[in-house]
Amino acid sequence: MSVNNSNRLPGEERGSVVLGDKPPRLGMEALQLSGVERPTPSGTTELPPCGEERYDIGFGEIIRFTPSVIRTDVTTDEPVAPLLYIQGMNGDRKLEHIMLYWAQHDQRQVMGLRYYNRPSTSPKPVKPGMRGYRPGAVIPELDIQRTDDLLRMIAHLNDVDKMRVDEMLIVAESAGGPRAVLLANELVTSAKNHASSVPRVRLVLVDSAGLDDRSFLQTHVDAIKQGRNERRARKSDTIAAGMIATLPRVKAIAKQQRDRPDQRAVAYVDIGSVLAAVSESGVPVLVLSDKQDLAFRTARIRQQMEVSGAAKHVELVQTNKGGHGVGLSRVALDTVIQKTREFEETGFTTA
Fold this sequence. Notes:
The protein has 9 helices and 8 strands. By secondary structure, the protein is of the alpha/beta class.
């Protein structure tokens, strides 16, 4: 299978990436990047070079970075498991920046799926009980489609180099969280159907959607409030500029935003009961929630996890990385990488 390099976005080049100490992009990742530069600064020669693979699969592009040096997992004395990164809303343009940074700084293979276009699948929830999901789960068609896309990605890589699916670290941000949970559920279900052992999969959810019981409209209002804070910190923010006048104005814009399928899916989704089932099956799960995240507040996530039963087997850790998501912030990424590595190596994180 040939590697495709023809779909690189404007302004993007290969090389080591060092991200600035800027606040992460907020507002439920509603600030889309266009042509972000990836400089290769001096003083980064200690970072291992990464091999880069790209595979065109029609609706999107599989991207995989493999560093020349892969560290050893201290728990197994074997090379550390590959990482699948699932981006959130509007995360396609910054996806490979995050992946390359993670691959180089954590010395592990990192892969992801970048879409060419915005989703067109319906965001409306499927019928209760579909695919055996537990009662209480609210799963949009869009999230199921994106989960199936990830399964196609894994199957494609398996055809390329027999990539194992029974050992993987899955990290998902914001709107990617529900898809990560559904993917883990599919892997566990498949293993049970084939009388196999539970896959050695670990799941890390970063400021995940679907773990909050906010109403449809309140979700969008919170997201725009999140954008207000960024406008104060970043004068270049153009999304939040017209959204800070009064609460009625915020609500009016929130209603306009609801027309986007991905935003509506975020507002609908409730993944708590599926997360509970995944964790009960033996998959270790870490949920990271930032203390400055106005869209998905830690207290509400904790309460909803208790209601769904997910709190019994899932660890919830509050971070202080600057707000929702990781954006292109080195501070935010380093925080998430550190917490993920602690969880992977010891099963728990430091407070």
